[in-house]
Amino acid sequence: MNVIGRLPEAAEEEPLVVIGAHLDSVDTPGGNDNASGLAAMLEIAVMLTADGVEYRFVAFGAEEIGLVGSEQYVAAMTPDEMERFAGAVILDSIGHGTLLEISRADGNPGTMELTDRALEIAEAADLAAAATVMPASDHASFARAGLPAVLLSSTPYG
After folding, report:
1. Cα-based distances in Å from 8 to 13, 19, 88, 138
2. Which of 45, 66, 111, 147 has its CA 20 to 30 A from that of 15?
3. What sign results for the dihedral spanned by CA atoms 23, 25, 31, 33?
4. What is the CA radius of gyration of the chain?
5. Model-level pTM?
6. Are 95 and 123 in contact, with CB atoms under 8 Å apart?
């Protein structure tokens, strides 16, 4: 099951951006994987205004057992949503570590542009960051559908 929210002033004809995190955890410190991602997503929702973008905040279910929630979300997107889709930023295990990993699942052009932009933002904020390839988190469901998406996580994992 996914939990989806959006800013009340968002217009459905604007570019669509998904900010997501997964709800479940495995036998790891659940406060990091993935309560940290959910907490950050909720704080981002408080800080943003629609301002010409339709932001959707999605808490994906069942990431740990095979990306079930994000695959369902992408499969249910309408042609209009796919057309307006500007990108997805997925937050996973960001509560520990000193290096921000900006991961992509494949090399589609939109994902490469999103990765480069995230690296620019991290550099401007004076954050230690690196681009990586990670094929197994919720961003991969978007990338497999040809939609630009990145995963933000931090290392070392703990």
Report:
1. 14, 16, 19, 25
2. 66
3. negative
4. 15
5. 0.91
6. no
CA dist 106 and 126 (Å) reads 26
Q: Residues 63-81, buried b or exposed e (16+ Cβ, 10 A)?
A: bbeebbbbbebbeebeeeb
Beta strands of 1-158 (E only): which ranges?
3-6, 16-22, 54-60, 85-91, 99-104, 129-133, 149-155
pLDDT in tens, 12-37: 889 999 999 998 888 766 677 888 89
Give Cα 39 to chain centroid, integer Å: 13
Q: Which amino acid is at 34?
A: N
Rounded to whole angstroms, the Cα distance separating 158 from 155 reads 8
Residues 6+ apart with CB under 8 A from 19: 41, 44, 45, 55, 56, 57, 58, 88, 89, 90, 91
